[in-house]
């Protein structure tokens, strides 16, 4: 896909989810190696990336990690791939010993309840000028 940084890992996230936005902010703070870029699933670019990956019809509504020209991950796989790049969270990759079906069922439970537990925004977050370069 053109116009995407080829040397960055792209996180597609639910832009109206408070929980998801808190995690994006956490990742930005811990991403000292400048590995990640972010785009909301609801944005035009987010929709284009999902279409390009062939996952637009899967109803993914929480997180996708796209590594241009290599792979993409979603649900618990995305979380574990992101965590292995972050200090203090890289130990979470130990959970890969569990089958994806089990990990994803836990992930789905949290995703299903995230709006009820953490709330929902009316619109996607607007990054501050200093953070704008992290968003596509």
What's this entry about, in short?
The chain contains four helices and four strands; from the N terminus they run βαβαββαα.
Structural class: alpha+beta
Determine the strand fraction and express it as a percent band: 5-15%
Q: What strand line-up does the widest sheet have?
A: 2-1-3-4
The overall average pLDDT, rounded, is 88
Work out the helicity level: 25-40%
Q: Which geometry do the CA atoms define?
A: globular
* Number of DSSP E strands: 4
Helices, by number, come to: 4
Detailed description of the structure:
With 136 residues, the chain is an alpha+beta fold. Helix content is 37%, strand content 14%. It has 4 helices and 4 strands. Strands 2-1-3-4 form a 4-stranded mixed β-sheet, sandwiched between helices. Helix 1 links the parallel strand 1 (9-13) and strand 2 (36-40). The longest helix has 19 residues, at 100-118. It is globular.
Descriptive keywords:
single chain; about 140 residues; alpha+beta; four-stranded mixed beta sheet; 4 strands; about 35% helix; about 15% strand; globular
Helix and strand topology:
Layout: E1 9-13, H1 18-30, E2 36-40, H2 44-53, E3 63-67, E4 71-74, H3 76-83, H4 100-118
Parallel strand pairs: 1-2
Antiparallel strand pairs: 1-3, 3-4
């Amino acid at each position: 896909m053109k116009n995407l940084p080829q040397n960055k890992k792209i996180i597609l996230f639910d832009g109206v989810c408070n929980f998801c936005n808190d995690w994006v902010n956490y990742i930005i703070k811990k991403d000292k190696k400048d590995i990640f870029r972010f785009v909301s699933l609801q944005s035009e670019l987010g929709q284009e990336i999902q279409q390009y990956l062939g996952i637009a019809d899967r109803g993914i509504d929480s997180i996708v990690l796209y590594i241009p020209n290599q792979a993409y991950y979603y649900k618990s796989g995305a979380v574990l791939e992101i965590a292995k790049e972050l200090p203090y969270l890289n130990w979470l990759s130990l959970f890969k010993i569990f089958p994806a079906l089990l990990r994803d069922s836990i992930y789905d439970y949290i995703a299903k309840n995230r709006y009820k537990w953490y709330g929902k925004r009316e619109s996607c977050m607007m990054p501050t000028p200093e953070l704008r370069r992290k968003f596509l």
